[in-house]
Amino acid sequence: MSVTQAPPAPDAVLVRRPARTRVTWLLVVAAALLVAMAASLAFGSRDVAWSDVWSALGGADHTLEEAAVTKRVPRTLLAVAVGAALGLAGAVMQGVTRNPLADPGILGVNMGASLAVVTAMAYFGLASVSGYIWVAMLGAALTAAFVYAVGSLGRGGATPLKLALAGAATSAAIASLVSAVVLPRNDISDTFRLWQIGGVGGASYAQLGTVAPFLGVGCVICLACARALNSLALGDELAAGLGERVALVRAAAALGAVVLCGASTAVAGPIAFVGLVVPHACRLLVGVDHRWLLLFSALSGAILLTAADVAGRVVARPSEIEVGIVTALVGAPFFIHIVRRQKVRSL
After folding, report:
1. What whole-number distance in Å separates Cα of residue 142 and Cα of residue 258?
2. Please, what is the Cα angle at 96 between 332 and 222, to 5 degrees?
3. Is the C-alpha dihedral spanning 298, 45, 61, 205 positive or negative?
4. Which residue of 164, 223, 248, 292 pairs with 101 in a disulfide if CB–CB is 3.0 to 4.6 A?
5. Dihedral sign, CA of 310, 315, 318, 322?
6. Measured distance CA(79)–CA(268) in Å, rounded
7. Whether residue 265 has pLDDT greater than 90
8. Angstrom distances, CA of residue 143 to CA of 1, 130, 147, 302
């Protein structure tokens, strides 16, 4: 009598890393995040001593140095929050699409959010961060669905190269629409130009309070899908055989990523490549288990964006380079490296 063997649990076929190794790397990454946050408070157009940093964190603002630190606190917190959101969203998008090139910027999601925001600015008088968040999430969701639909056409379905090409073409088309909306409107062109570059300067506690609930909800949704994403990595048929509701999991994870991308873009502008670079680096540390990968991607994204913000302030002092430019300088060569390594050629 033949016995039907049950499919293996998804965790059983993942490349495992020793738990001690993962915990060690977790401590290292957490320490690196604390160092990046400390550097963000101490370095800028005016460097301050560590004693002034501690005094300012304790509530003192009697000197120029202490006042500078106090002003940098919301900026640092916003960089951490946005970086974590983009790193987590990138890892989820790569897991949902099984595409190593998936990223909110490359797939056109950030540009879709930008078009929605600038349209609301120009034609509906929208001027609040809370309003930006809702329209940005709508624009991000519509663009993500459109790019995935276009990339799925033809033989082979949604291959990595087809999705990347669809995202690039969609981004170019949306960029033209954004220019068509902004150019005739001098009243919003300056505001939108600064926002479009992507940065965390001018952050305030009010902005943090507005965006925090959305980022929190998006993070909870994405982290809750971690185990199911391990099943999706085995293929849709095997995931269904393991009891996963594939369409529901993919929709839920995509929703969490869209919320993170929309909220981040609304408050900081379209910042590219964080969601691409971070998950690939984290896989080298902790493997492909999404229960660890998502957590590490969030922490590492926070490190990358905070460090990029510090670098932009230090390199160009007394002025600064917006963080969106710094991440593009880092991410573009990495994107080329990934394309060459993957050797993705099917159309």
Report:
1. 10
2. 95
3. negative
4. 164
5. negative
6. 9
7. no
8. 53, 20, 6, 25
Could you give the dihedral angle defined by the CA atoms of residues 89, 116, 152 and 88, in that order, rounded to the nearest 10 degrees? Answer: 0
CA distance 87 to 22: 18
Model confidence, pTM: 0.85
Task: Report how far residue 228's alpha carbon sits from residue 6's, in angstroms, rounded to the nearest whole number.
Answer: 18
Nearest-angstrom CA–CA distance, 259 and 224: 14
Answer whether 273's CB lies under 8 Å from 105's CB.
yes
Residue with tokens 């969203």: 89
Which pLDDT value is given to residue 5? 45
| Distance between CA atoms of residues 310 and 21, nearest Å | 29
Neighbours of 88 (CB within 10 A): 31
Check the CA dihedral 126-129-133-136 and report its sign: positive
Half-sphere exposure (CA, 13 Å, Cβ side) for 107?
A: 37
Token pair in block for residue 78: 């916003």
Choose the weakest-confidence range: 46-50, 312-316, 328-332. Answer: 46-50
